[in-house]
Specification:
The protein is α/β, with parallel strands linked by helices. The protein is built from 14 helices and 17 strands. The strands form 2 sheets. Strands 1, 2, 3, 4, 5, 14, 15, 16 and 17 form a 9-stranded mixed beta sheet that branches. An 8-stranded parallel beta sheet has the order 6-7-8-9-10-11-12-13. A hairpin with a 7-residue loop joins strand 1 and strand 2. Helix 4 packs parallel to helix 5 and helix 12 packs across helix 13. It is globular. The model has no long low-confidence stretch (mean pLDDT 96).
Length: 458
């Protein structure tokens, strides 16, 4: 059967390929779910089976944004504990999060995904690690929401086995045992992981953090991931308090501790990585360990500024993350392009820290690297999957910014005219095509109130 083609032309294009190739006016041709061609000027003449032509005048086409760190369940607890550091914030919110059930988690996943997808995200991930006993199939609910939305998705199946009585932060009734966490994680891999080139769902092994899991869970989690050929994810070096915690409990800093448990490698990525010294950065570069940079969340919690320019110079793969919406209430990744650039310029490198094209690369190709999918997504190149975003830049908001990449990164949030995942339309003229936003908003209000009532009852 002949391939069905979508043609987008008359638009600026930022391919984010290895040479940062750009076209002031060019075309992209999609054949079924792959990119067939990209180049300057109009599309090739006499293309067969063209099912749609899009006039991209006044627009910029980029690869779809790739989110590398999130906690969807936090959608139901936005706007709380707004003046806390990380540890105090966790202590304040864990008792509420421990009351989650399957309908709440499904609704939170739908809300979190909807905000990201309509803002240009085509590949999302969720680090879900709160599995209260007897609350249903939480992983299945999250994966189902992503499938409904039509987004490419990685579930980092998290776990915690160090409760308050063992020196951790979460309530004891919200943690799993070592054996149950490992068994449930492997069951999730069996049921949902797809290793194919165009996979829509993948699974990663993701114990939560050094202060909520035991050393044995980290070690056996790494062994499980490598035996099953999936990636590993956790939080690392987010705060000064975490570094102090690791030194007091383990006699070493977070990076050395992770290395001692098998948690450095090209199949690993960690969220935040704010408080890293030169030796830590060198270890990440040497091993190919990736980083999910979450600038808004780090600022919201006063955690500090990750050394992104130094990480990049050391060869560390770096992508962007929204993080949970209880520490980044906007819930959108495209704002992280701007915030990554601005916040990193407040650090040691000043105005040379990042530029607009580096920020765009973090949000696209960098994210694909971190998720282990750089040969499939993250840049606009023939043969790659057709995950594309068409940004509208001809309105008042961007009228006097000549460079389209600068307009996208530093200007006001650009509307999404069209977003494709695997060649399928998921956003059209700024609206989701696969779900009803008003229904999600209504369900969000209802489930957030229900969670608050249950938490208040203790």
């Amino acid at each position: 059967m002949a391939a069905s083609r979508i043609v987008i032309e008359n638009c600026a294009i930022a391919t984010v390929d290895a040479h940062d190739t750009e076209y002031a006016s060019g075309h992209v041709v999609v054949a079924d779910h792959r990119i067939e061609s990209v180049g300057a000027g109009p599309a090739p003449a006499r293309l067969e089976n063209v099912v749609r032509r899009v006039d991209g005048s006044g627009h910029l086409v980029t690869p779809g944004l790739v989110n590398t760190h999130h906690h969807f369940y936090q959608w139901l607890t936005r706007g709380l504990a707004t003046d806390h550091n990380l540890f105090n914030w966790l202590v304040a919110l864990y008792p509420t999060w421990a009351r989650l059930d399957e309908p709440m988690v499904r609704t939170a996943a739908r809300g979190s995904l909807a905000m990201m997808v309509r803002g240009g995200v085509t590949t999302a991930m969720d680090h879900h690690y709160v599995y209260p006993r007897g609350t249903g199939d939480l992983s299945g609910a999250i994966i189902g929401a992503a499938a409904e939305m039509g987004v490419r998705f990685t579930l980092a199946r998290g776990s915690m086995d160090r409760g308050v009585s063992d020196g951790g932060l979460p309530p004891d009734f919200a943690v799993e045992s070592l054996d149950s966490a490992l068994a449930a994680t492997e069951k999730t891999i069996d049921a949902h992981h797809d290793a194919s080139f165009d996979a829509m769902t993948q699974i990663a092994v993701a114990p939560c953090s050094p202060f909520s899991v035991t050393t044995e869970l980290l070690k056996q989690g790494a062994e499980l991931a490598r035996r099953r050929g999936v990636r590993l994810h956790t939080h690392g070096s987010e705060t000064v308090e975490e570094e102090q915690f690791c030194k007091e409990l383990f006699g070493m800093g977070p990076t050395d501790y992770f290395e001692s448990t098998g948690w450095l490698g090209s199949d690993v990525w960690m969220a935040h990585c704010v408080h890293m010294n030169d030796a830590d950065i060198a270890a990440f570069g040497r091993t190919g360990t990736g980083v999910a940079h979450c600038p808004s969340s780090n600022a919201r919690l006063g955690a500090g500024i990750a050394r992104v320019p130094d990480l990049l110079r050391a060869g560390v793969p770096v992508g962007l993350g929204v993080d949970g919406t209880a520490s980044n209430e906007s819930g959108e990744l495209h704002t992280e392009l701007r915030n990554a650039l601005l916040i990193n310029r407040l650090g040691a490198h000043g105005e040379s820290a990042l530029n607009a094209r580096q920020a765009l690369r973090l949000g696209t190709y960098g994210g694909a690297q971190v998720l282990g999918r750089a040969d499939q997504i993250g840049s606009i190149e023939p043969g790659k999957l057709a995950d594309l975003v068409l940004w509208k830049l001809d309105t008042l908001a961007h009228a006097s910014i000549a460079d389209p990449v600068t307009a996208l990164v530093l200007g006001a949030a650009a509307p999404v005219t069209l977003s494709l995942v695997n060649g399928r339309t998921v956003v059209e003229d700024g609206h989701l095509t696969t779900v009803d936003e008003d229904t999600i908003a209504r369900d969000t209000r209802s489930e957030a109130l229900r969670l608050a009532r249950i938490a208040a009852q203790g």
